[in-house]
Task: inverse folding
């Protein structure tokens, strides 16, 4: 593998040399960078994140930092957009654009994005392959401009990585594992089939981007735990069970099953057959909403700068939504419906979706979808309809939505249809996300309204 | 020149071959010579592979027995997808395929286990063949081939009511009701791919397909008596291993069932009235998790049968690290506390029978804990040195639990198949690493130790061997082994001990209905060592061995007597027996002692008191998982304790008992009355629940004639200067207790010694410190507290500052100078000797010990080992 890769690389260099010799005769043209170059990187990153199996919270962090690196460069060159410096804790002004150099801001932005991305994943080689092929294309087109932009882009990347390294992520890697308490009936237990440990129990210790603290949007507690018939909690438990049975009766083609599967976004679904185990891997909720951002940006005919803006804003809202949600998850530490239904109602019941490995309240997908939809609405406006084909590569059909909020509501309720959340986690979760989203949008004020107005 | 090198090489080869030869015990017989051409070929396709059927790689069985009574054991192999084969033993390890003529090829689509036994009591061995039916499109039923003589058989399972069409692994013959005929235990396995553990109580709901069945022989047919006999038959019974033995020597055969996955193994004790009591949790501390085949033999010469249960723990470090094995500790906790299962760990377990009272597990000590993906276990004395050796048949074509496979199986491949309901295509299966390993043979030794002789006693060529059985195929007195291999010819291991050690083979002829005397037991003594064998043929995995009893006699030419316990429990003594013969004994009513005596193999010094004198204290350790905070520590430290101390707490001259609690459990005091102990609540102790009591001492510290109580507190879960770590001194007050002053000590205390080191008649205290809480391995000071007429103060002892992670200590006058010295033991340290120099303690270990005795010392007790009057 390594050998063939090297050969490939040599071949590439050889080929490039020829190309380069040829192009020497011609006048160097300015490099053009369009949104597709950015999507190429995003698509590759999404693919790598699936391969490397990043959990949803970790994935949200991986989306945010590279986008911010790119956005900060754009905000330096495009007066339409305000820098995030001063609004996001610890972020300091990036190095200035040296006007004596032939720096292409969009090119530098995408190079900075690639470089920061590379630091966040395991399978760097996969990204490096894409990077090298992009680099060589740019270099052939205009070597001077490429080299200047690259130097600047890497400087900015270095700056962002330095800031990123202080967000407590590394520290959380060595913090205590989550201790499962089997004595208290309401507490979360690992769930079938893989019975994985609770993931990211310390995610609330990650430095947030826009929100003041992980607990800023602390939701009301879930209904008090009770297995008494007639209690609010029990009613919600029973509702999950009843809805699931109803849906199952309606069959796999029913709208509810389609909704549940469409929004599953579980990066690691374990499949066990006797001693055999394997996993099917998919995108995370964050990646799904990044996909929607792409669909909207394309539909709106966004240029490179607008595209970076849309993705940066949405990814920040998503990242903070995960921090807020995970803070509540390990506070309320609530048991999943699957565990309780198996213990008290129906030993053989299985949810339509596989229960993900962390406490129930609030629903991560609901919080994240609520926040993302608010961010996207602030960018593209109310009533922005779109056809969501994000899940097509994963064998799921397209779904159409009249607005981002319409999609977020569906994503939220999908968790109940899927049998992995109670109603409170979904309804309170999506509200938690929306409140958080509004706060993020208002705080960041990324668009320079006066500049826009003067255009 | 080249020629010379060639010759040298040849010579070298010859020398190597020779040195190999000297150790070798088994030769593999070439199938060209033996004529055994059977191969259990399994063919996977899109509809049938390891994904569709979890036991796709479990392979076939083998049964050995002399079907034509010519004195030579014949061999029957089951084929999973291919037809079964019966080979007639023609002598000289040559065999003839008589399957066609015999009519035993079978009609089931997926055959599994096989057992030979005389089911209709005509003196001829019949063959029972198990099948998996009703899943994956498998058709057929279990088949019973009744021996008609002259090498022909008739399939008569329906007549006998044994034509079960369910998921059978194997069957075992036993006379559970001692009515003289052979009953049958049918071992079935679950196939359900439900990934939820489910509660252990699932086993109470019988399911036809996967539930085990106890089938009573009613003369001309068999009746399912599972329910009235108390046999579990749930959807979670992954039965792969079965062993029959009279484990408690009460005369009635008991049953041990090994269950794969999370279901506990079953230990059915025969109540003697047609019912069984499943008692695993009472008798076993823990069992193998992925229990496979098993075997039973008395390996420690106490007359009680011991058990090995195989698992799939790899020995190879690389395979070990890349395989999924045991659950993490939180899951184990959940399985035990919430779902009601027993402690299970993924490795082989050797369960040593403690006189029928309990089992002690020694596989790690015995060196047989890891033999990779293991199917059959066979105990026998293969080298005839008087000790049971162990053969393990191993291997799997592909390792489905490979972690790299689990995490990195291509998404597309799996998903496409999931969508098409066919699960995974060949490409995905090819990604699974192979698990071909060599079969393992261990030489049994004294003190429960086994030595791995793989590659020495037998070839270490890798393969996949499933079923295995032993028998004397060449009639030379020693035991040969046959394995049924997957996708390859069977292996015949010919034993070549040939007269290097002596043997005795015993064949019993019992009464009609059980002609081969299944359930008989023979005891004999060789060199004052007891050997015991019980005649049950179903051993290993899906297989049955030759119905004979074989003993290794070392160099002894004669045995003064043997003691036969016939299946009806009548006893016969046979005297003056020559070695190296096949002793045939017919049951004769005139020769047997009608009164059943049980050998008292060992007289216990202590016996358990029935009602515990009313002491119903049960220690409940609080759940705290050290590994969540310290991921790499080798063992838990927060589960030390409970403290216990005996002394007269109420001045009635009767000893009372103090039991300390774990953190958040009340300490309890039991007061002795005339005949029992009575627990008495104390308002003070009822509130002393935060402490984890590690050690306690009932001593009169203030010399007021009343006993005080000192409790050492630790546990390793509290950190810093917290009250929860302070040691406590209590004195009696108004029928209750009061807490008394004691200097603060916030260490994670772990050891206590009480002694008057300064000869002022007031007992002083040493408190040893364990590791700092949640900082494994760090050393804290230990302290001596001087007793000034009931008031304690810390005595400065520099040598105790960093003495180590203490586990125990004693005050003893080791230099006989009239002053108590101090000996301290602990973990990761050598024992420390502190000499009392007029009240000052000095570490003189280096002067006393020549060697470094570092170890994980746990406890110390002085005694006079050489009887010279001083304590050693």
Result:
């Amino acid at each position: 593998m390594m050998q063939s890769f090297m050969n490939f690389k040599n071949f590439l260099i050889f080929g490039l040399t020829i190309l380069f010799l040829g192009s020497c005769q011609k006048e160097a043209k300015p490099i053009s960078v369009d949104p597709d170059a950015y999507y190429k990187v995003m698509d590759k990153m999404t693919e790598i994140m699936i391969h490397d199996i990043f959990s949803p919270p970790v994935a949200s962090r991986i989306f945010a930092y590279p986008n911010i690196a790119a956005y900060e460069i754009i905000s330096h060159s495009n007066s339409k957009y305000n820098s995030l410096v001063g609004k996001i804790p610890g972020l300091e002004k990036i190095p200035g654009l040296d006007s004596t150099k032939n720096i292409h801001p969009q090119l530098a932005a995408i190079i900075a994005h690639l470089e920061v991305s590379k630091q966040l994943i395991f399978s760097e080689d996969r990204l490096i392959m894409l990077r090298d092929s992009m680099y060589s294309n740019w270099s052939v087109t205009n070597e001077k401009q490429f080299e200047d932009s690259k130097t600047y882009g890497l400087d900015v990347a270095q700056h962002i990585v330095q800031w990123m390294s202080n967000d407590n992520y590394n520290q959380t890697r060595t913090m205590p594992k989550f201790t499962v308490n089997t004595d208290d009936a309401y507490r979360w237990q690992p769930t079938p089939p893989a019975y994985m440990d609770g993931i990211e129990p310390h995610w609330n210790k990650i430095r947030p981007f826009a929100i003041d603290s992980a607990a800023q949007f602390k939701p009301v507690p879930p209904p008090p735990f009770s297995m008494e018939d007639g209690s609010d909690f029990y009613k919600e438990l029973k509702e999950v069970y009843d809805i699931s049975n109803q849906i199952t009766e309606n069959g796999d083609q029913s709208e509810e099953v389609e909704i549940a599967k469409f929004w599953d976004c579980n990066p690691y679904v374990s499949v066990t057959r006797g001693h055999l185990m394997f996993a099917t891997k998919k995108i995370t909720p964050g990646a799904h909403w990044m996909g929607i951002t792409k669909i909207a940006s394309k539909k709106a005919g966004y240029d490179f700068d607008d595209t970076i803006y849309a993705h940066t804003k949405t990814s920040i809202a998503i990242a903070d939504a995960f921090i807020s949600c995970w803070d509540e998850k390990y506070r309320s530490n609530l048991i999943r419906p699957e565990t309780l239904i198996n213990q008290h109602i129906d030993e053989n019941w299985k949810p339509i979706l596989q229960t993900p490995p962390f406490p129930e309240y609030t629903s991560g997908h609901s919080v994240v979808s609520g926040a993302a939809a608010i961010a996207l609405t602030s960018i593209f406006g109310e009533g922005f309809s779109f056809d969501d084909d994000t899940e097509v590569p994963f064998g799921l059909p397209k779904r159409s939505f009249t607005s981002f909020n319409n999609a977020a509501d569906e994503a939220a309720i999908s968790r109940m249809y899927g049998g992995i959340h109670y109603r409170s986690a979904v309804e309170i979760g999506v509200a938690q996300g929306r409140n958080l989203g509004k706060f993020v949008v208002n705080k960041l004020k990324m668009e320079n309204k006066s500049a826009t107005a003067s255009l | 020149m080249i020629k010379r090198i060639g010759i040298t090489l040849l010579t070298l080869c010859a020398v190597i071959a020779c040195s190999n030869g000297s150790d070798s015990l088994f030769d593999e017989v070439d199938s060209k010579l033996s004529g055994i051409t059977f191969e259990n070929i399994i063919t996977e396709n899109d509809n049938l592979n390891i994904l569709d059927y979890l036991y796709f790689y479990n392979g076939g069985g083998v049964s050995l027995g002399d079907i034509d009574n010519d004195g030579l054991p014949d061999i029957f192999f089951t084929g999973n997808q291919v037809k079964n084969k019966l080979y007639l033993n023609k002598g000289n390890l040559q065999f003839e395929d008589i399957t066609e003529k015999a009519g035993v090829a079978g009609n089931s689509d997926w055959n599994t286990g096989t057992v030979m036994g005389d089911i209709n009591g005509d003196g001829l061995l019949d063959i029972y063949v198990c099948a998996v039916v009703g899943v994956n499109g498998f058709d057929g039923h279990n088949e019973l081939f009744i021996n008609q003589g002259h090498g022909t058989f008739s399939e008569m399972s329906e007549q006998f009511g044994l034509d079960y069409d369910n998921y059978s692994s194997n069957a075992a013959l036993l006379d559970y009701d001692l009515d003289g005929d052979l009953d049958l235990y049918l071992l079935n396995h679950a196939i359900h791919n439900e990934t939820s553990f489910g509660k252990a109580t699932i086993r109470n709901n019988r399911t036809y397909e996967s539930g085990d069945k106890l089938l009573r022989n009613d003369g001309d047919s068999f009746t399912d008596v599972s329910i009235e006999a108390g046999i579990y038959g749930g959807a979670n019974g992954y039965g792969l291993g079965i062993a029959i033995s009279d484990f408690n020597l009460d005369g009635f055969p008991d049953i041990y069932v090994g269950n794969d996955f999370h279901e506990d193994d079953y230990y059915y004790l025969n109540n003697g009235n047609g019912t069984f009591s499943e008692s695993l949790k009472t008798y076993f501390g823990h069992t193998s998790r992925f229990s496979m085949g098993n075997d039973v033999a008395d390996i420690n010469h106490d007359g009680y049968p011991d058990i090995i249960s195989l698992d799939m723990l790899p020995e190879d470090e690389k395979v070990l690290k890349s395989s999924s094995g045991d659950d993490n500790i939180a899951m184990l906790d959940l399985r035990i506390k919430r779902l009601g299962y027993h402690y299970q760990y993924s490795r082989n377990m050797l369960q040593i029978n403690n006189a029928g009272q309990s089992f002690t597990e020694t596989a790690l000590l015995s060196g047989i804990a890891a033999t990779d993906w293991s199917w059959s276990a066979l105990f026998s004395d293969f080298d005839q040195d008087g000790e049971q050796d162990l053969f393990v048949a191993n291997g799997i074509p592909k390792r489905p639990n490979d972690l790299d496979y689990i995490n990195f199986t291509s998404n597309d491949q799996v998903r496409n198949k999931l969508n098409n309901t066919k699960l995974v295509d060949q490409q995905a299966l090819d990604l699974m690493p192979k698990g071909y390993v060599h079969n393992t043979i261990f030489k049994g030794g004294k003190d429960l130790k086994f030595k791995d002789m793989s590659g020495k006693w037998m070839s270490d060529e890798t393969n996949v061997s499933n079923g295995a059985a032993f028998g004397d195929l060449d009639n030379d007195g020693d035991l040969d082994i046959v394995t049924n291999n997957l996708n390859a010819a069977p292996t015949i291991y010919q034993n070549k001990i040939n007269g290097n050690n002596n043997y005795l083979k015993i064949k019993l002829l019992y009464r009609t209905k059980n002609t081969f005397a299944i359930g008989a037991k023979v005891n004999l003594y060789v060199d004052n060592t007891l050997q015991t064998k019980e005649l049950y043929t179903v051993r290993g995995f899906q297989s049955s061995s030759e119905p004979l009893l074989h003993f290794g006699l070392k160099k002894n030419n004669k045995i003064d007597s043997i003691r036969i316990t016939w299946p009806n429990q009548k006893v016969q003594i046979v005297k003056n027996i020559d070695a190296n013969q096949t002793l045939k004994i017919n049951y004769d009513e005139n020769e047997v002692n009608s009164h059943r005596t049980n050998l008292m193999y060992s007289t216990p010094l202590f016996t358990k008191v029935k009602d515990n004198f009313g002491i119903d204290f049960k220690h409940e350790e609080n759940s705290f998982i050290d590994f969540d905070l310290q991921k790499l520590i080798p063992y838990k430290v927060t589960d030390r304790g409970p403290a216990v101390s005996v002394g007269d707490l109420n001045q009635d001259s009767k000893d009372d008992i103090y039991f300390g609690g774990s953190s958040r459990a009340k300490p309890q005091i039991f007061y002795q009355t005339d005949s029992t102990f009575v627990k008495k609540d104390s308002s003070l102790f009822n509130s002393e629940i935060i402490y984890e009591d590690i050690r306690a001492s009932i001593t009169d510290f203030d010399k007021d004639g009343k006993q005080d109580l000192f409790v050492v507190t630790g546990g390793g879960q509290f950190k810093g200067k917290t009250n929860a770590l302070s040691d406590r001194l209590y004195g009696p007050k108004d029928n209750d207790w009061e807490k008394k002053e004691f200097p603060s000590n916030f260490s994670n205390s772990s050891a206590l010694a009480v002694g008057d080191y300064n000869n002022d008649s007031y007992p002083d205290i040493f408190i040893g410190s364990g590791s700092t809480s949640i900082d494994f391995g760090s050393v804290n000071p230990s302290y001596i507290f001087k007793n000034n007429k009931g008031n304690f103060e810390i005595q400065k002892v520099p040598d105790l500052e960093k003495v180590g992670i203490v586990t125990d200590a004693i005050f003893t006058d080791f230099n006989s100078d009239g002053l108590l010295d101090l000996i301290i033991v602990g973990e990761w340290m050598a024992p420390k000797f502190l000499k009392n120099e007029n009240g000052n303690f000095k570490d003189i270990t280096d002067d006393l010990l020549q060697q470094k005795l570092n170890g994980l010392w746990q406890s110390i007790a002085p005694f006079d080992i050489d009887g010279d009057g001083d304590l050693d």
In short: The two ends of chain B are 69 Å apart (CA to CA). The first strand of chain B starts at residue 26 and ends at 28.
